Amino acid sequence: MRKVNPSLKWFEAGNYLFLSLISIVVLIPFLNIAAGSLSGGNSILEGKVSILPVNFTMENYWALLKNFGFWKSFGITVYITVLGTTLNLTFTSLMAYGLARRDLKGRSTILLIVLFTMIFTAPIIPSYLLVKSLGMLNSLWAVMIPSLISGFNLLIMISFFQNIPDALTEAAKIDGSNEYRTFWSIVLPLSMPVMTTIGLFYAVSNWNGYYAAMMYLRDPGLFPLQVKLRQLITQDNAGDILTSLSSAEGIKMAAIIVATLPVMMIYPFIQKHFVKGAMIGSVKG
């Protein structure tokens, strides 16, 4: 039986302790907001709420549930996240598959352009004028199309595709498969770990999207959840949602929880693929 190095044991124990402390520090603000969303208004204003609810009530959530404007923004965010992430993955994977081919003409030039976009971002005014000239101003396309492909995610996916054995794609071509059929039938099924990882990156980015919506959208009926949340917090619009038993601060905290929970609930279901996808693209076979 192989002996375990005592110093390695102490390192692992210290590592677990350190990560546990970091996790607690990260969770405390979230628990405080969750407790506030379930507490009475006077308890919040008097500073009695820590990480446990005081004068437990669901009225803040009921008041939020009855507000049509908030849930319309929630639905718009779900739409942007689902459609936007689908488009992100489709175009990123297609571009990465082509650039993973070392014999592609102009590959180095295209990769340099991709790296350039990662170092230098487009200024605000030219970006705004471009979106306006394309007729996407004040439409949800303006939120999704400009960020269609992320250079960072593209490079990760290229690295993953390059690790897929050439023998598989060559065998498919011998059997008469063209490039599109090879991609959809051979490469894509093998790429679920990296697709899940990149999909999570894109989904979180789309869900938390705020900057593009503020810059390109003028119609309040098109505002996604994060913009609506900003209005609730900074402009004190929570007063329009108040009931006799709810509080403005409690409603704001309830809105933050509702905006945060969906992403947190998805992660445990894809954690296995996420870890595998994050690691496999960084190791050359």
TrEMBL record:
<feature type="transmembrane region" description="Helical">
    <location>
        <begin position="251"/>
        <end position="270"/>
    </location>
</feature>
<comment type="similarity">
    <text>Belongs to the binding-protein-dependent transport system permease family.</text>
</comment>
<keyword id="KW-1133">Transmembrane helix</keyword>
<keyword id="KW-0813">Transport</keyword>
<feature type="transmembrane region" description="Helical">
    <location>
        <begin position="182"/>
        <end position="204"/>
    </location>
</feature>
<keyword id="KW-0762">Sugar transport</keyword>
<dbReference type="Pfam" id="PF00528">
    <property type="entry name" value="BPD_transp_1"/>
</dbReference>
<protein>
    <submittedName>
        <fullName>Multiple sugar transport system permease protein/putative aldouronate transport system permease protein</fullName>
    </submittedName>
</protein>
<feature type="transmembrane region" description="Helical">
    <location>
        <begin position="109"/>
        <end position="129"/>
    </location>
</feature>
<feature type="transmembrane region" description="Helical">
    <location>
        <begin position="16"/>
        <end position="35"/>
    </location>
</feature>
<keyword id="KW-0472">Membrane</keyword>
<keyword id="KW-1003">Cell membrane</keyword>
<feature type="transmembrane region" description="Helical">
    <location>
        <begin position="76"/>
        <end position="97"/>
    </location>
</feature>
<dbReference type="InterPro" id="IPR000515">
    <property type="entry name" value="MetI-like"/>
</dbReference>
<feature type="domain" description="ABC transmembrane type-1">
    <location>
        <begin position="74"/>
        <end position="270"/>
    </location>
</feature>
<keyword id="KW-0812">Transmembrane</keyword>
<dbReference type="InterPro" id="IPR035906">
    <property type="entry name" value="MetI-like_sf"/>
</dbReference>
<feature type="transmembrane region" description="Helical">
    <location>
        <begin position="141"/>
        <end position="161"/>
    </location>
</feature>
